[in-house]
Amino acid sequence: MQNLRCINKEEWNDALKRLLVSHLIYATTENGSNLDYELITETNVNHISYNRPKPVTPLKSFFLPVRENVTTINSPEKPRIIIGTPACDAEGLGILDEMYLDEDFKDIFYKSKRESTILISADCFGILEHCHCLSYGIKPYPTGIADLAIIEKNGIIIFRILSTKGEQFLNTITAAVIPEDKSIAEFIEEKHSSTESLLIEANKALPDYKRTGILVSEAKKEIWKKYSATCVSCGACTTICPTCTCFLLIDKPGFEKIKQLDACQYPGFERVAGGEDGLAELPQRFRNRYMCKYVWKPERFNSVACTGCGRCIEACIGKINKNELFMELA
């Protein structure tokens, strides 16, 4: 119980309104059937949605813009608070941190954004059709990476403290107190268990992360031809993925360089100046994405390269379901 804090929802909304003076606040709000991030103002602070999976936009968009000038240091923005991020997205920052905060190749722009952000993740109460985080060892509620986990229960906002930064932030909100009611902890445990049960039932035929890597590396070319048949090389799967990080550096007049996100599914992704292209054929490009996520990155990084959010399945114009591919391999 010691890592829990509670605050009345009205007091929490008032605290957010006060923080608008010093912070940019982004939070998940409902827009019809979709959930996505919105810049919070005094007029929409009451519209924040908690504990519903999952926003359309991946969290990485806040830290890796599609286009970014890396030769111009802009004036620092206000610090940010991001509210409502699901655990799959928070865990996605793990591999981004390993890449962009590496001591030998530190990205000062990414570092600045990470340090100036308070991340308040949300426990997922329920799942969507393609959610499969638990299959890859990620709980449907934050256990790290984020600074706080947030839960709404009958007009009460409950926080689980996940970092010193999160605890320090809560200390600025004097109304947040340690709950004495044991039913709150029981409520959280029941919700966690319920969501995990849904994930287990929905994905019982899906191999785990390690097993998937073995299956992908051993798969014959026929399977890649079959599942890439409807791929249009649009790059939606990589763009919306919370862990894909490939980028180009584009030279501009005036000695400027623009860092622009790239996608391994684009034709010409691996083409070199001499004209050679190891991924010229569509099935090869298609296979490359899965080899990267399930074979090559696990060899290099500690964090998983797929967090089971399912967005790539939802965004695919060709209606390609990677989970069906893996289950067929299994």
Observed structural traits:
single chain; 330 residues; alpha/beta; 2 domains; seven-stranded mixed beta sheet; three-stranded antiparallel beta sheet; 11 helices; 35% helix
Output mean pLDDT. 94
Poorly predicted runs of 5 or more residues: none
The SS-based structural class is alpha/beta
Task: Give me the Rg, rounded.
Answer: 21 Å
Shape category: globular
Portion of residues in beta strands equals 15-25%
Arrangement of strands in the largest sheet = 1-8-7-6-5-2-3
The biggest sheet amounts to: 7 strands, mixed
Number of strands: 10
Task: Write down the domain tally.
Answer: 2
Number of helices: 11
The topology string of helices and strands comes to EHEEEEHHEEEHHHHHEEHHH
Describe the 3D structure.
The longest helix has 21 residues, at 182-202. The protein has 330 residues and is α/β, with parallel strands linked by helices. It has 11 helices and 10 strands. The strands form 2 sheets. It has a 7-stranded mixed β-sheet, with helices on both faces. A 3-stranded antiparallel β-sheet has the order 4-10-9, with no helix packed on it. The model has no long low-confidence stretch (mean pLDDT 94). The chain folds into 2 domains: 4-202, no CATH class; 209-329, no CATH class. It has helices at 9-19, 87-100, 108-115, 164-171, 182-202, 209-218, 221-228, 236-239, 282-300, 311-315, 322-329, and strands at residues 4-8, 24-31, 34-39, 67-69, 80-85, 117-122, 148-153, 156-161, 247-252, 256-261. The relative contact order is 0.16. Helix 7 crosses helix 9 (282-300). The protein is globular and about 65 Å long. The protein is 35% helix and 18% strand.
